[in-house]
Amino acid sequence: MTGTEPSSSDLSGADLERYLHDAVQAARRAGRVVRAAFHDGRVAARAKAPGDYVTEVDLQAERVIRDCLRAGTGAEARFVGEECGGAVQGLCWVVDPLDGTTNFIRGFPSVGVSVALVADGEPVVGVVHAPLWRETFTAVRGGGAFRNGQPIRVSGRPATGAVCSTGFPFKTPAMLPAYFDVLSAVVGTVEDIRRPAGASLDLAWVACGVFDGFFELGLGPWDVAAGALLVREAGGIVTDWRGDHDDWLVSGNILAAAPLVHAGLIKHTRLAPRAPVPRPTAAAERP
């Protein structure tokens, strides 16, 4: 496909499979960078903000992904990354080269590489790769979700038997009171809560039924685009905290869960005060 950017409706199943192939290759190559650095044990990090770090591994993995996508069939798409920024518009790759940087720095292996293709605000291809566990989760719109090539589904548990994951909105302290009100209500509804991080892997675990739901405020599109598609294609429901099926990628406020669990949690998240999140405004770059 050349010339004008294809819209979401222009993308055929064959197009999506080609994009998926490129995304998997990019995520796995970046994963090799992450895995080698993790086992080497020497990581230089700088703080972008309190609790928010970037390492040379983040930057190197992002370069690997960009180069791989530039050489593939999705070269016409813009590139939006956690480290380079950019706005999610038109056809774009949305990438987190190292999701869970703090875990990585601390030697905790819950880290992921997230690569999504978003068309007109809708994720249509999603890959979440866990390099330290050699797990690869994939999905294309309308094609189901897979873990290492095997089909996956969300759980069928009710909210009362659910184990959910979450994350704290530490980058936006103004959100903390609303978040903790919801967390308190959810703790009284579900069986248990986990907080492993990062969000892309949390969503992948929801998609395969390890966790039953995930909720967080103030995330970036690179945190959730790929994982949310996994959940949807595995039979789950993804909305913002008010139940909007489209706004979560813009607001960064996400509730993703198996259907019965989503029904049990949305009544709590809907009560939280609306909390707008500033989104990146810089123009997205071409790969």
TrEMBL record:
Coiled-coil zones: none
State which Enzyme Commission number(s) the record gives: 3.1.3.25
Record keyword Nucleotidyltransferase present: no
InterPro entries on file: IMPase, Inositol_monoP_metal-BS, Inositol_monophosphatase-like, Inositol_monophosphatase_CS, Inositol_monophosphatase_SuhB
**This protein's superkingdom?**
Bacteria
Keyword Metal-binding assigned: yes
Q: Which CDD domains match?
A: IMPase
The organism named in the record is Amycolatopsis cihanbeyliensis
Main role? Catalyzes the dephosphorylation of histidinol-phosphate to histidinol, the direct precursor of histidine.
GO biological process terms, semicolon-separated: inositol metabolic process; phosphatidylinositol phosphate biosynthetic process; signal transduction
Protein name (record) = Inositol-1-monophosphatase
GO molecular function (one): metal ion binding
Pfam short name (any one): Inositol_P
Cofactor(s) for this UniProt protein = Mg(2+)
